[in-house]
Amino acid sequence: MPAQPPRPRATTPPGAPPILHLVTDSGPSIAITFDGGASSNRTAELLDLLEELNIKATLFLTGQFIEKHPTLVRRAVLDGHEVGNHTFNHPHLTSWEQDRRHRTLPGITKAVLLAELERSERAFQKATGRPMAPFWRAPYGEENATLRAWALDGGYLHVRWSSLEGRSLDSLDWVEDEHSSLYRDSKRIMNRLLAFPHLEGGIVLMHLASAREEAPWAHLPEFVEALRKRGIEPRRISTLLRQSAVWKKWLLRAETRHQDLWK
User: Fold this and answer.
1) In the CATH scheme, what is the code of domain 29-261?
2) Which secondary-structure segment (H or E) carries 167?
3) Which residues on adjacent β-strands are paired with residue 78?
4) CA 173 to CA 177: how far, in whole Å?
5) What pLDDT is attached to residue 12?
6) Dist CA 81 CA 175 (whole Å)
7) How deeply is 95 buried, as exposed, middle or buried, from its count of CB atoms within 10 A (0-12, 13-18, 19+)?
8) Contact between residue 24 and residue 162 where contact means Cβ atoms under 8 Å apart
């Protein structure tokens, strides 16, 4: 039998940043991030709570959310939260839903992705009069090195959430079915997050809206108190990256590109 030719190895596209999910050299800080898709249900209540706790968070908003709820977006900015890009329409970008692999879907090109990000950016600037932070988060967490490289060329560094040793700082607060094995009430959500093996430099994922009777962030004060007792302070993504020798260069690269495109 003739020898089989070697399989081609996957290569990382030039300029693709690494996966940003844990900033291990950021010091005693943690980022609590919130995604906003379309609904604003209970978002004002959450912003009130963050203000009471003196927390500055990073929000990832779709253009749809921004266009539907500009008053809430302006309030978030005035409260000191930074806002990253979550695309405009929240589309699927990879084949994860079909085959549990992150292959870029047919029809998702660099132009398509950048158009999604640009449309959301323009909506934000119209609502607030200022540019977004130079960050984005892929809908459903569907991303790969190619998508990260394309987006960075458009001025956005991809920000995931932390995962380590089979655990995650994804709060799973979007699970509303109490019969689901993934469902956790607010107290259990916070206890699960506190059990994460490396909270310093961690990135927590929560959501701005909820249809639950008890908001999933109801026990956020206890979570924050426990963090502060450990000497860990909630901060924005930009603060974590600026404190990091590893990630500061990527932040500066995204900031420079973003400023060039959105002066």
Assistant:
1) 3.20.20.370
2) strand 167-168
3) none
4) 10
5) 67
6) 25
7) middle
8) no
Percent residues over pLDDT 90 in the chain: 93
Question: What's the pLDDT band for 14 if we cut at 50, 70, 90?
Answer: confident
Tell me which residue of 161, 156, 158 sits closest to 172, measured CA to CA.
Answer: 161
The DSSP bridge partners found for residue 205 are 33, 170
**Residue 124 and residue 132 in contact, taking contact as beta carbons nearer than 8 Å:** yes
Kindly list the domain boundaries of the chain, sorted by start residue.
Answer: 29-261
pLDDT over 70 for what percent of the chain?
A: 95
- Assign 11 a pLDDT band (cuts: 50, 70, 90): low
Dump pLDDT digits (tens) for 102-152. 999 999 999 999 999 999 999 999 999 999 999 999 999 999 999 999 999
Residue 21 to residue 27: CA distance in whole angstroms: 15
Q: Rg of the chain's alpha carbons, rounded to an integer?
A: 19
Q: Report yes or no: 225 and 52 within 8 Å, Cβ to Cβ.
A: no
Distance CA 152, CA 110 (A): 11
The continuous run of DSSP H or E covering 234 comes out as strand 233-234
User: Which of the 8 DSSP states describes residue 129?
Assistant: S
